[in-house]
Amino acid sequence: xxxxxxxxxxxxxxxxxxxxxxxxxxxxxxxxxxxxxxxxxxxxxxxxxxxxxxxxxxxxxxxxxxxxxxxxxxxxxxxxxxxxxxxxxxxxxxxxxxxxxxxxxxxxxxxxxxxxxxxxxxxxxxxxxxxxxxxxxxxxxxxxxxxxxxxx
Length: 152
Description:
Elements: E1 19-25, H1 28-38, H2 43-46, H3 48-52, H4 63-76, E2 84-88, E3 91-92, E4 101-112, E5 117-126, E6 129-139
Antiparallel strand pairs: 1-4, 2-6, 3-6, 4-5, 5-6
C-alpha cells in the first residue's frame, strides 16, 4: 500500500452510494508491528510453528489489523480528515493470512443532515471472499456548522 493521498470531504459533499476503496497486501512485518503496538502477541499471529497446528494451518493477521484498514479509508478519503468515528460494528467472516491482499470498500449508506452524521457500510475481502464486514457511523465536518469541538 502506498501512502494514501488525503482528501477532505464535508458533509455537503457526500451522497448515498459514494464509494472509496483501498487494497493492502499483508506482510509479516505488518502483523509483527501490530502485535508490538497493541501487545496482542497471540502466537497464531507470530509463530508459524504454533499456527501450523491450528485449523488455519498458518499465521493469520489480527482481526483488528484488518479492521484498521477501514479506519485508514475513513480518516484519509471518505470522508477524510476531520471525520470523527462514533461507532463501528465488525463481523469477522474468515481469516486473513500473511501475503493475502485485502480489498477494502466503504460505501455511504445513509446521511443524517441534522447531526452531520453518515452511516457507512464497510467490507474487507480477499480474492472476492468477504473476510470482514460491518457498519461505521461518523460525524462529518460541515461547511455550514459552527467550528467547535464536535459533540458525539
